[in-house]
Amino acid sequence: xxxxxxxxxxxxxxxxxxxxxxxxxxxxxxxxxxxxxxxxxxxxxxxxxxxxxxxxxxxxxxxxxxxxxxxxxxxxxxxxxxxxxxxxxxxxxxxxxxxxxxxxxxxxxxxxxxxxxxxxxxxxxxxxxxxxxxxxxxxxxxxxxxxxxxxxx
Length: 153
Hints:
By secondary structure, the chain is α+β, with helices and mostly antiparallel strands. Helix content is 17%, strand content 37%. Strands 1, 2, 3, 4, 5, 6, 7 and 8 form an 8-stranded antiparallel beta sheet that branches. The chain is globular.
């Protein structure tokens, strides 16, 4: 299944990394949902590929912190401002015409829950543990040991 991932910025978007199998939230328009869409339906899925018309194949997009970090398969890492100048690439002179990514996912199951329901199920300690688990998983999938977004909660 192909779905669109279009950033809403301000740390509202889901991280996506090729090879990740986890819970993701989709809108009825076959798009990854942002944190405001509490009606987004939950799926357990594997991220098979991420592509962008200008950037090509993407290894992963991390949305933790004030900058989004995009890992390209060619080894480059792009730091994209997500708060003061959303969409401005900080470390390379690239101007992106459209911030829409094509993501191929393999849905393993549709859980029957919505984003709002899942959020209500988790207490603060569970949210903290989940965040820390995800940070470690993303680093492993990206093949890195350190990242600026490696913020433990």
